[in-house]
Structure formats: C-alpha cells, structure tokens
Amino acid sequence: MKIEVLYFSGCPNHAPAVERVKEALRAEQMSAEIVEIEVLGAEMARRQKFLGSPSIRVNGLDVEPEARSRDGFGIMCRTYADGSGRSGLPSLELIRAALRTALREARTPRSGSVPCRLFIFGGSLVAAVAASLCCILPVLAAMTGAGAVAAGVVFDRWRPYLLILSGLLLAGGFALAWLDHKKACAAPGSICAARPMNRWNSIALAILAASVIALAAFPHYSGAIARLVVRQPRPLPALPSAGLSTVAFQVPDMDCPACAVALSAAFRKLPGVVQVKLDVDSRMAVLTFDRSTENAAALKKVITDAGFHVTPGPHSSD
Question: What's the pTM?
Fold first, then answer.
C-alpha cells in the first residue's frame, strides 16, 4: 500500500496531515509507505491533479471519495467536511475508511475470476493450435526430418469442431473480461472507476485474439510458410524424355499446402525424379522419373513412409 501526502511549501496543515495518516495507520494496525510530494507550481499541480494542500491519496485514490471526480487543480489550501463545518485536515475516520477500502481491494482479486479468464483464453489458444495441427505438424516433420509428414492428418477431421470451440472460448473470455471490468467499476470511487482498463491490458487481449485468429487460419497460408522453412534438396535434373515415365498417385489425405510442400521435398531427394506436381485440390501427385534409377513402387513408398495413403493405385505412362 502506498500513501501520498501532497502539499505546497508553507502549508500549515502539511505536517499535521502526515501525523494524522500515521495515527490512522496505528489505529488500523497497518504499515505503509508515506510519500510526501511537494507541488511546485501550477503546471505540476495539473500533472499531479492536485486539489489543494494537503491532499492525501491511498494507492492513487483521494481519501475523500466525493473529490475524486473534481478537476479544480491548482496551488491552494484545501478544506474537508468536518461535521457541520469545514477543516483544513481530513478527519481520522475518513483516512481510516480509505485505508480499509484499499486493503480490502488489495486482498480481493478483481471480480474473483482472473484464473477462470486465463483458463478460457488459454483454452482458446490451445484449441486454435489443435485445429491447425493438420498443417503445423507436416512443417515440423519436414524441418526436423522426423519422417511422418502426414502426422497431423488425424486432426483434420476435428478441425471444424476445434475452430468452433476456439471461437466460443475466445468470445466467452472477452465477454467475461468485460463483465468483470464493469462489475469492478460499478462502485463509485473504486480503483477501477478511477483507472479504466489500461492500455497494456487492451494490447495483451488484442495480441491474444490476433494469435488465435492467425493460428486458426494457418492452413490457408501454410504452403508459403513451408516453402520458407522446408529446405528443398536440389534442383531437378534435365534428362532426355526417351528414358522418362510419368506416374500419378491419388493421395486422399494430402489436403494441406504444407503437406504438399513437405512431400515435394521428400520426392526431390530421389536422384531419378525430374518433375514433381502436387495438387492439393485434386489430391493428386504426378511424378516424372528416370526409369533407369527409379520405379513407381519406390515413389509410392515415399508417400506411404510420409504417413499418407495411396488409392486406388498408380497410373503410369511412358
């Protein structure tokens, strides 16, 4: 807890105000830092929102709730309601009430649902990652040489449901954060009412939402990412057409651009392959190869070793 006593030089009530704060702390059996701030001139008075000397703030809030919305800042003496009259010092009870309020707000998490919000937002992020694993895992597999490029195919059938779940969790998290904020700001003079949701909280929520959206949309730009990070082994050789054959494979679970890029890199490692055409829309892999060094069975094995299925079989032409 931080207590500020603002004053200007020569104010007769400065020192008594500090003593009254200490008395209130003793009465409440509390300890806190007391910072004395001398206000030097009208410009500083505006910056500090100085309502007159002495002004006492607990955790940034004036001890007089009615004064928190005032904007008459300047170098002047200040008075406080004291029974039927006015006094140059806030009453002991007014200071004690401000201390108790600050302590209560410090001990009680705002709205009590911060862990719940973190869980919901975290769940939204995890669901978005899971929804895009069908395209994330092939990129990772190709980068690390782990082999199973089609490792994420199992997630593809769950993608629509995971996207819906991610969207619902994200929307629910934002709704809960907004309701919690409104509830915390409902009490007049509360810390939240005096300090709206700060810019950094808003930026953090915006970054989270952008991350979820980017992850959910990953399959749409996964091909470009895969081309950037997956190392292409070598340029394909130019060979006379007399010794070449073309084979086409139907690959029903090659439904992601990243899968096609990673599978293309696997084919290009074979010395006899001279052309690779992979089409995600038709799920077709069309390969041109040198019959003296490769065969259709070896090419099919590249597909199955990557974790994909081949149906109903290859179609070749010389």
Answer: 0.48
244 strand-pairing partners: 290
**For 231-260, b where at least 16 C-beta lie within 10 A, e where not — what string?**
eeeeeeeebeeeebbbbbbbbebbbbbbbb
Domain tally for the chain? Answer: 3
Q: Is residue 195 domain-shared with residue 89, that is, in the same domain? A: no
Tell me: the pLDDT tens digits for 202-220? 787 888 889 888 888 888 7
Q: Which domain holds residue 83?
A: 2-107
CA distances 32 to 3, 180, 186, Å, are 7, 28, 27
Same domain, 140 and 192: yes
Residue 288 identity (one-letter amino acid) = T
Beta strands across the sheet bearing 2-7: 33-38, 2-7, 55-58, 61-62
- Looking at 204, 228, 252, the residue that finishes a domain is 228
Task: Write the pLDDT tens digit of every residue in 274-307.
Answer: 889 999 889 999 999 988 888 999 999 988 888 8
240 and 274 in a single domain? The answer is yes
Long-range contacts of 308-313, Cβ-Cβ distance < 8 Å, separation of 24 or more: 308/149, 308/150, 308/153, 308/251, 308/253, 308/254, 308/259, 308/263, 309/251, 309/252, 309/253, 310/249, 310/250, 310/251, 311/250, 311/252, 312/250
Burial of 158 (0-12, 13-18, 19+ CB in 10 A): middle
